[in-house]
């Protein structure tokens, strides 16, 4: 058992030594693996950040009821009161036609043009904000039907279509991320497999001697597995570093941009779980790529007498 | 005890390197395999080392039928052998110590035991003190002795050598053969393939002469022992 563990330690140290003796080739291979792992990590980070940002938007979903011309403001206030008593409604705000006109004049830049109109063309509006727990598309549709049933209401509009579309895009991106990760993972397998194949070819005389003195395939394969895992782990660590660096560089300008939209949103780096997945994927792909290459190429190496 | 019984070996190119060869070698015996190039000497060693399997016939080594041996048992079997080549097959990027220690590392021997046995093996071949040197810093004769130390470090039951003196001058050849004789003296079965008749005559051991894949003359080891082992 001690000898077995010693050989594991020797294989690991030997693999580190061999990689260190060829720093340029090692760095190139690790860089290629890092790029392949950084892409899905970065895309995953983009999706999780976008979801987090969209989560804030979801709370801001409004349902607007536009009243028919001539409906009295008092009637609108009564209906607002009954809306407030409905389950799943967080807040109700009445915007009278006069308040609406004032706001429109202030922000639209058409103040002078509106003054030319004889009468206020804007209707009274009710802004109904659903509770966060009642913001599913089904809940919103029920609220819309409730408001539309009032004969005084001309039009009901859910101001959440863009959020739903945004979520659909994020869902699509998540699927693209999954497919991309599969292809890039296959690429990492190929890079590691080819690197190990070349190393096996370069160490053929040594492998022949080890076989001749009774080395099993598992014994011969072990250093190559460590080399593959070191490549994969090194690539994963570098990928993590690349993404963290990108987040650091982008955090300030992103916060500035969010502030312009009145948001306090800040860009988040990879979560511990995401880092863990990338490191495990690097190790796993390194091991698998090396194992496949070793299984394929060690088979043909037998000692010569 | 090694037994070849009507062993034929045909290579994929159709050449028959051995044709119904029958002979036996007793435990602790030292035997020379001689014959012209292509006579089948190397094939005999390859069959013993399980680098090849017989096409027909039976090869028994210490009671194991090599033709029927499963591939997964090969490494353990090879750990009972010591093999010496004409061209040493040393790992040039490793010091002498690591080269000699390789079979022990493969066998999972502890670090302390490995150190002890490597130094003992190097002492036997007269290279103690040169553990840290690289093979290419040694003379050809010393390299051959490192190869022998690597072969005997596992205390093999059977030691096979293929033209071990092929690259050595006559004096060095005798020195190397004396080493093999010393291993035989402690009970190791030694089989040496050589066409160096000077060495063969000098040591006066039993000789198995091969010609065109067939054993020439009668088998000198009594056949009854072959029959008894079956």
- Rg of chain B, nearest Å: 17 Å
- The CATH class of the largest domain in chain B is identified as Alpha Beta
Helix content of chain A: over 70%
Number of strand segments of chain B: 10
The poorly predicted ranges of chain B are 221-230
* Structure classification of chain A: alpha+beta
SSE map:
The complex is a heterodimer of chains A (305) and B (230).
Chain A: H1 2-21, H2 23-58, E1 63-67, H3 73-84, E2 89-95, H4 97-108, H5 111-115, E3 125-130, H6 137-148, E4 153-158, H7 161-202, H8 204-212, H9 217-260, H10 272-297
Antiparallel strand pairs in A: 1-3, 1-4, 2-3
Helix pairs in contact in A: 1-9, 2-7, 2-9, 2-10, 7-9, 7-10, 9-10
Chain B: E1 2-10, E2 16-25, E3 30-34, H1 41-48, E4 56-61, E5 64-65, H2 74-78, E6 81-84, H3 96-106, H4 111-124, H5 140-152, E7 158-162, H6 170-185, E8 189-193, H7 197-203, E9 206-211, E10 214-215, H8 223-229
Commentary on this structure:
Chain A has 305 residues and is α+β, with helices and mostly antiparallel strands. Chain A contains ten helices and four strands. The radius of gyration of chain A is 32 Å and the shape is elongated. By secondary structure, chain B is an alpha/beta fold. Chain B folds into two domains: 2-80 and 156-229, Rossmann fold (3-Layer(aba) Sandwich); 90-155, no CATH class. Chain B is 35% helix and 23% strand. Chain B has helices spanning 41-48, 74-78, 96-106, 111-124, 140-152, 170-185, 197-203, 223-229, and strands at 2-10, 16-25, 30-34, 56-61, 64-65, 81-84, 158-162, 189-193, 206-211, 214-215. In chain B, a hairpin with a 2-residue loop joins strand 9 (206-211) and strand 10. In chain B, helix 3 (96-106) runs parallel beside helix 5 and helix 5 packs parallel to helix 6 (170-185). The longest helix of chain B has 16 residues, at 170-185. The radius of gyration of chain B is 17 Å and the shape is globular. The interface between A and B is medium-sized, with 22 and 27 residues.
């Amino acid at each position: 058992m001690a000898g077995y563990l010693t050989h594991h330690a020797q294989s690991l140290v030997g693999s580190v030594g061999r990689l260190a003796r060829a720093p340029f080739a090692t760095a190139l291979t690790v860089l290629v693996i890092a790029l392949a792992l950084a892409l899905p990590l970065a895309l995953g980070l983009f999706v999780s950040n976008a979801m987090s940002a969209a989560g804030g938007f979801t709370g801001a979903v409004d349902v607007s009821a536009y009243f028919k011309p001539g409906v009295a403001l008092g009637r609108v206030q009564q209906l607002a009161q009954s809306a407030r008593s409905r389950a799943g409604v967080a807040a109700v705000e009445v915007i009278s036609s006069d308040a609406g006109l004032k706001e429109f004049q202030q922000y639209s830049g058409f103040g002078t043009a509106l003054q030319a109109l004889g009468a206020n063309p804007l209707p009274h509006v009710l802004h109904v904000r659903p509770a966060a727990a009642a913001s599913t598309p089904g809940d919103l549709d029920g609220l819309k039907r409730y408001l539309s049933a009032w004969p005084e209401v001309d039009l009901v509009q859910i101001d959440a279509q863009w959020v739903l579309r945004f979520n659909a895009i994020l869902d699509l991106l998540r699927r693209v991320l999954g497919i991309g990760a599969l292809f890039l993972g296959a690429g990492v397998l190929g890079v590691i497999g080819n690197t190990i194949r070349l190393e096996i070819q370069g160490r053929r005389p040594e492998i022949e001697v080890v076989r001749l003195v009774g080395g099993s395939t598992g014994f011969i394969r072990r250093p190559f597995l460590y080399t593959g895992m070191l490549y994969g782990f090194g690539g994963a660590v570098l990928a993590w570093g690349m993404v963290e660096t990108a987040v650091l560089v982008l955090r300030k300008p992103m916060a500035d941009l969010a502030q312009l939209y009145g948001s306090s949103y800040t860009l988040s780096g990879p979560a511990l779980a995401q880092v863990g997945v990338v490191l495990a994927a690097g190790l796993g792909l390194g091991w698998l790529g090396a194992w496949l290459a070793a299984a394929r190429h060690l088979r043909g190496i037998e000692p010569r007498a | 005890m090694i037994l070849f019984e009507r062993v034929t070996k045909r290579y994929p190119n159709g050449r028959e390197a051995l044709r119904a060869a029958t002979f036996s070698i007793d435990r602790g015996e030292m035997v020379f395999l001689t014959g012209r190039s292509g006579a089948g000497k190397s094939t005999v060693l390859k069959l013993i080392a399980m680098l090849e399997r017989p096409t027909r016939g039976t090869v028994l080594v210490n009671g194991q039928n090599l033709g029927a041996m499963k591939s997964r048992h090969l490494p353990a079997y090879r750990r009972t052998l010591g093999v010496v080549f004409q061209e040493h097959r040393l790992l040039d990027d490793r010091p002498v110590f690591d080269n000699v220690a390789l079979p022990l590392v493969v066998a999972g021997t502890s670090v302390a035991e490995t150190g002890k046995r490597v130094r003992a093996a190097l002492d036997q071949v007269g290279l103690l003190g040169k553990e840290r040197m690289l093979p290419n810093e040694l003379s050809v004769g010393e390299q051959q002795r490192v190869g022998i130390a690597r072969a005997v470090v596992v205390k093999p039951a059977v030691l096979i050598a293929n033209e071990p003196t092929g690259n050595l001058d006559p004096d060095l050849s005798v020195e190397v053969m004396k080493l093999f004789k010393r291993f035989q003296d402690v009970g190791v079965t030694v089989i040496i393939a050589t066409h160096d008749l000077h060495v063969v005559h000098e040591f006066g051991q039993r000789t198995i002469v091969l010609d065109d894949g067939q054993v020439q003359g009668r088998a000198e080891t009594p056949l009854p022992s072959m029959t008894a082992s079956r």
